[in-house]
Amino acid sequence: MSETITPFRIDIPKADLDELRARLSATRWPAELPGVGWSRGVPVAYLKDLTEYWRTSYDWRAHEAELNAIPQFTTEIDGQNVHFLHVRSAEPDAMPLILTHGWPGSVVEFSKVIGPLTDPAAHGGDAADAFHLVIPSLPGFGFSGPTRETGWNTGRVAAAWAELMSRLGYRRYGAQGGDLGAFVAPELGRAAADRVVGVHVNAATFGFIPFGDVTDEERATFTDAERARLDRRKNFQDDGRGYFEVQATRPQTISYALNDSPVGQLAWIVEKFKEWTFPAAELPETAVDRDLLLTNVMLYWLTGTAGSAAQMYYENMHSGTWHSEPATTPTGVAVFAEDVAIRRYAEYSNNITHWSDFDCGGHFAAMEAPDLLVADVRKFFGALR
Q: Given strand 173-178, what is the order of strands in its sheet?
């Protein structure tokens, strides 16, 4: 296996962009029932408007140039291509930090936090809080390309991240992640416990929420905020996990629709940005800039990785390798307004040393509330430098 690290630049052929516009123009729109709004999925009128904006007004080349202004690389780890952003701070004592996105996100999620984390002095912070950032695309996602074999669950990703950080010469570093990244970061803390100084997560679920039902007696001991989180979790279980069941059981089947129809891909992702951002009752653009949302979608569409990204759900649910022993790595948790983590359950399997509750922000905190996330990351790792 080659350990070569190769500079990478995004350069999407014009033919691919022309084909996208042609497919958007030729969309075969479905019927819908009157008056149901978002209750059964993305409304046609909303998606038509967003699709027309994507087709006629969204400028991929401008966003491609913004991404290319960030140093990017690829390397092969465990037989898999890994694409990553690597932004070193000018501060000599900066702490290395690996950031891991989730689904349906990408490295685009972190575009608003790169500057404040690498150059805090230029963003109203203290130079002592600077980080060197490593931001990989998960295997199977975006420019990491499709996975080439089975077995790429979040535990295997964590082992790959440990190798990546070693390959970059980082011997002591932190890990942060949300959604699937909140699976990977704690796994990395276990896989490289002698090197990971701390783990920070947001949008955390497994390992940070109750496993199974909660009795009425236990619920009675909850705070109002904890009861609200438990209710959100139940609503997800009852009415919001259809995508999860499909991706965790039949990822190949859904891949045909997502890989062939850009509007299908858009709907599959934008629904989650509507439901998981804060406030959830509003349109996704209330929380996340429309262009940023579409750039995130483009990383799935242009690389043809919607299906391979879905495979990670299948791998996690069929791996049988979930860790049950308590972790020892210091762990910080940021709970935003749409998150569901509850501290008493997080403490069963994590060494919780930092906990923050926020009454705003949602699942995509780095996009929705970057200032709050940056401040919390600085505070947590400030005690571990």
A: 6-7, 72-77, 80-87, 131-136, 95-100, 173-178, 196-202, 330-335, 351-357
Task: Select from 237, 242, 247, 241 the least CA-distant residue to 314.
Answer: 247
Residues 6+ apart with CB under 8 A from 238: none
Provide Rg for the chain, Cα atoms: 20
Kindly report, residue by residue over 18-34, the tens digit of the pLDDT.
999 999 999 999 999 99
Spans in the chain with pLDDT lower than 50: none
- Give Dmax over CA atoms of the chain in angstroms: 61
Identify the three-state secondary structure at position 39. Answer: coil
Sign, CA dihedral 122-123-129-134, equals negative
DSSP type of residue 48:
H
Q: Which two three-digit tokens encode residue 278?
A: 């804060």
Q: Give the angle subtended at the CA of 351 by the CAs of 349 and 353, to the nearest 5°.
A: 140
pLDDT per residue over 197-230, tens digit each? 999 999 999 999 998 899 999 999 999 999 999 9
